[in-house]
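Need residues for this backbone.
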């Protein structure tokens, strides 16, 4: 059944622009890479993803170059705008078309670009620093590329959408609307820059929510330029969207505009092994995890070990890593895990220096009868003494007691299959977990809990995560562990209650027999199946309809 309602305008072309196209950095990569196949099928449009060419001169396994795609346009564009472009396919399900842009030549015109941004859109780049320049030059190059492609290969007889993701692509969305007003513009913020900054700086976002003013906080937190481009883009495009109801409220308060549509993040289940291979994949993952853990700790824990994990971006407070570690300490010290072996995995990329050579050697020689030095980490960090996770583990005595039946193993690298220890991807280890805990404080959506549930891993999230709120709405109440996903209440003042709640959920899981555990695993998978892209893509088509109708009115002078 089509997701297009009667009277909706269908796009002929969709240009989806993001810093994370063919560039695996964070959650937006997951959004776009899992969405592509469904978006192409449901929209019926020619979909072109646009990203930065960060691997020119070396191999990018995510990009398959195809020199047969629009070679005449490429030559024309390079001659007129002097921007190098490569066309090809993104190596993901659906193999969508991709433009990768080498935007380095734009830097020589940076001052002019920023002055035009101020004159035309009142975008304040005066206080820019860090990654602002790089993102803006890419964003401007993307607008030039779409303008050129539109004039060369499309023309005014087709409906075209330019979809910009996150503040890094905002300047291009505003520029393309100015350059080619016939093109409909959509902007999605996956998290407001100022909301993330408020939380990251230890301020209480929710307790004083209605008292925060975005412009004032941007000045206080030295976020003026990023906030400016995000706010002006949200106000300036034809359709503004965000990924959850909780972030929509944040946009209303901090950006002073309510999104036209909430475009929830879905999932593509082709990442999950089929029933035929699932059990073998899970067994293989557990064997790999336990081998490394037993080598680190000098133990001989068997497959009955309950493996509990957290993963995602390295934001100690925002992602609830601090609360997860506290709830594990709570479980250990309460004695509620007595009679069980609990191994907690912290799969969070940090400032990795190298995989531990002593661990590699011990793995190759068949294990270790004694715990290794600092037996709670698989890779050495550049900043061992300053890392928040390491400091917390040391402070709470993790890894020092060989007899402890609750242990923590910090895996601080990107699990891409080449980490030197596991040699497996994140998904190839995720499937081996028994329970996943993501008690986020700031989480616009929450891909990690959704992914875990999709892999049949019962999951804990919070009601400060968009995904957690969606789960509660689907269940019709506050979801518990037997629903497959448990949603813990969090606010600025209930740390101890939240820690106790997570401890109790883990203890409840430990007390279950295998029949009940299997029922909870199936409930998690069933719930995740309701969040597949085929159920959520309709909100994107609604956003495109709003934008296309706005651009049509603009073209007709109404």
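Answer:
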């Amino acid at each position: 059944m089509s997701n297009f309602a009667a009277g909706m305008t269908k796009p002929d072309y969709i240009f989806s622009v993001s810093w994370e196209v063919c560039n695996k950095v964070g959650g937006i990569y997951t959004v776009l890479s899992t969405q592509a196949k469904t978006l192409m099928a449901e929209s019926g449009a020619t979909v072109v993803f646009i990203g930065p060419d960060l691997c020119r001169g070396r191999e990018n396994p995510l990009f398959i170059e195809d020199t047969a795609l629009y070679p005449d346009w490429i030559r024309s564009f390079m001659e007129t705008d002097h921007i190098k472009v490569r066309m090809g396919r993104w190596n993901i399900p659906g193999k969508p078309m991709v433009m990768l842009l080498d935007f380095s030549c734009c830097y020589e015109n940076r001052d002019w670009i920023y002055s035009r941004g101020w004159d035309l859109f009142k975008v304040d780049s005066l206080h820019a620093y860090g990654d602002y320049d790089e993102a803006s030059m890419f964003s401007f190059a993307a607008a030039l590329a779409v303008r050129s492609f539109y004039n060369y290969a499309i023309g005014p007889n087709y409906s075209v959408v330019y979809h910009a993701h996150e503040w890094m692509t905002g300047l291009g969305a505003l520029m393309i609307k100015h350059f080619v007003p016939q093109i409909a513009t959509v902007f999605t913020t996956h998290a407001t820059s100022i909301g993330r900054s408020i939380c990251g700086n230890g301020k209480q976002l929710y307790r004083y929510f209605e008292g925060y003013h975005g412009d004032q906080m941007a000045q206080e937190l030295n976020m003026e330029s990023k906030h400016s481009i995000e706010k002006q883009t949200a106000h300036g495009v034809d359709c503004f969207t965000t990924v959850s109801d909780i972030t929509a409220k944040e946009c209303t308060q901090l950006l002073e505009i309510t999104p036209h549509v909430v475009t929830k993040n879905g999932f593509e289940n082709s990442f999950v092994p089929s029933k035929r291979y699932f059990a073998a994949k899970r067994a293989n993952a557990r064997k790999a995890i336990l081998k490394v853990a037993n080598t680190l700790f000098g133990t001989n824990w068997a497959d009955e070990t309950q493996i509990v994990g957290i993963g995602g971006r390295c934001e100690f407070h925002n992602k609830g890593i601090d609360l997860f570690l506290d709830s594990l300490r709570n479980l250990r010290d309460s004695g509620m895990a007595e009679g069980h072996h609990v191994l907690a995995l912290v799969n969070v990329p940090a400032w990795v220096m190298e995989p531990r050579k002593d661990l590699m050697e011990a793995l190759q020689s068949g294990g270790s009868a004694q715990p290794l030095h600092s037996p709670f980490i698989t890779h050495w960090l550049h900043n061992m003494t300053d890392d928040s996770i390491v400091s917390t583990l040391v402070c709470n005595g993790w890894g020092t007691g060989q007899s402890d039946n609750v242990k923590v193993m910090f895996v601080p690298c990107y699990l891409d299959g080449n980490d030197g220890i596991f040699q497996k991807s994140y998904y190839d280890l995720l499937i081996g977990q028994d329970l996943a805990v993501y008690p986020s404080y700031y989480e616009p959506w929450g891909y990690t809990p959704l992914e875990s549930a999709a892999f049949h891993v019962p999951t804990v999230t919070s009601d400060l995560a968009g995904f957690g709120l969606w789960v509660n709405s689907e269940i019709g109440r506050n979801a518990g562990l037997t629903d497959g996903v448990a949603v813990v209440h969090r606010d600025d003042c209930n740390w101890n209650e939240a820690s106790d709640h997570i401890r109790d959920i883990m203890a409840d899981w430990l007390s279950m027999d295998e029949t009940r555990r299997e029922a909870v695993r199936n409930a998690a998978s069933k719930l995740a199946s309701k969040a597949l892209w085929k159920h959520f893509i309709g909100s994107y088509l609604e956003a495109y309809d709003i934008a296309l109708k706005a651009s049509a009115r603009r073209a007709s002078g109404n």
